[in-house]
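User: Quick one: structure for sequence A, then sequence B.

Assistant: Sequence A:
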Amino acid sequence: MLKQDALNPDGEAGLERLVEAAYLYYSEGRTQQEIATRLRISRPWVSRLLRRARDLGIVRIELSPAFVRSVELSERLKAALGIKEAVVARHHGSGGEDDTALVAGVAADYIISTVEPSARIGVAWGKTLYQTVRSIRSPRHLGVSVIPVMGGLGPHHPEIQGNYVAITLAERFGGDAYCVHAPAYASSREERDMFLNMPAISQIWGGLDSLDLVLVGIGALSGSTVFEMGYIENNDLETLRSAGSVGNVGPWFLDERGGILPGVVNERLVALPVERVRRIAKRIIAVAAGGHKVNAIMSAISGGWLDGLITGEVTARRLLESASALPAART
């Protein structure tokens, strides 16, 4: 190993070593251990080099005001909604709604940064969730296990069904996906029970006692994935409205306070029992954006469903407005 005198910036060799270490770390994205091996120095010494490079102004780290604004909104959202995690994608352009693709990209970065090796991840379904897992480009092979928390088969848009979301996520991280060969909603309660008792499904869900992360989408009552997939008819929609539903989190339809609606559509749902999901999941994170989803998101928050939310700046500001109006509405 070479003499570790590179912290002395007075010599040409010392400066060259500082610049090389900084370039490898900040421009090429090399790890400190990779740099240590290449430069034949210890990893703690690499850390000192990088710190010295910042002290000397060789490296300057700046935060864009746009990014700072999104961080500020994230902190305000956590405080206002009482959730542990919030990530807000900044808004671009003059449009009145968030860019779902941008939110999905930010969600993908968040997932990459927080998923640990050998993690067990539960997934629901939906367009935003599908865009999120497609956006993941992880350089790490983590050996994750991905399990749909609901049935994952359907005749329309197979790419946004739970099975396909699970397979895509497992491929991105290098791991295994378990497929639930059943529709999300059965035609009757009896058919639902038949699916739940099938060995191929009970083997996947039966012994499941923990999930490190559960990813869900949130849908408004109108225009939700559930309706696009043809699982819900117009008469079901009217029944849900009459029962006070404002939307769904994952496949579960909620009332305004975040409670699971009894009967109606939920009784035909082929999925893990919601109480069990909430009990075994260490974190439930929703990826959702759009002004039409604000009531549904607030419902999920009120019901204590979520540990975290990934959304866009426009949606975040509307959520803050809704949260600030809650005390007045209750008095």
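Sequence B:
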Amino acid sequence: NLLSNKAILNYFVKNNETVISLPSGIEETVFPICIKIEGVEKNVAISPIVKVNGKIVEGTYLFQDSIEVEIISSDINAEIKYTIDETSPNQNSKLYSEKLKISESTKLNTISFKDEFVESKINSVQFYKIKSVKDLQLKNNPSEKYSKLDKFILVDGKRGSEKYNDNNWLGFEGDNFETTLDLGESKIVKEVHLGCLSDLNSWIFLPKNASFYISDDNIKFKKISESNYNVSNTENQKPFLKDISAKINLKTRYIKIVAENIKECPAWHKGSGGKAWLFVDEIILD
């Protein structure tokens, strides 16, 4: 309760954050508020760890055939529950007891429970079963610093990290990114994901526009999806990855992706007027 008010405070938990509602008639902007919280603090269970071939997997994992997934906890007394149907796991979810065989694109959500402990934070990993690419062409070559990297790093199944110089990214200074992928034959493609990097301190911005096209003959292309993005001075300054996605659900052989560079650093940026970088890595064909 508030030190000057004996009213019980209402609260709720959302996205691992506790939100406390103030009593009516009290404005949080009028004066500093001191809140006294009474109760017994509970320990929190440790989140499960997901492994493939003995290596820890976080975020996303790409594969082509099928894989075996192991879920472990550093606490032998913890109980692991999981879901593979996009829902959040709870006490009623399936109990993990043996390795999971995954042969299709799947989102795995895991959670740990332990007596007298608060349940762990959910650990989610998105598994993508990717399609092979026979060939790809770039309209614009990467900037000189990245010209020695093989263009096929875009579809090699290895995702770039938050470090732009990890040799998994192709960088374009002031230029757009445009590629055409040849699948070798017509295949059903559910979704396409273009991995991009934002690192404002290194003058790297997300594309302001990304368009996706399909074709059966590599001549006539049909636009399937378009996404726009406006960068602002409130953008996260720390490096982060963003997948720009398009739902296709059609049979096609050729896929063209065009990502438009913002060209110049915005007026509010420390590099105002200088050439902006566009970094792309893994193209995921689901």
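The chain is about 0% helix and 45% strand. The CA atoms of residues 85 and 241 lie 24 Å apart.

User: Thanks, that's what I needed.
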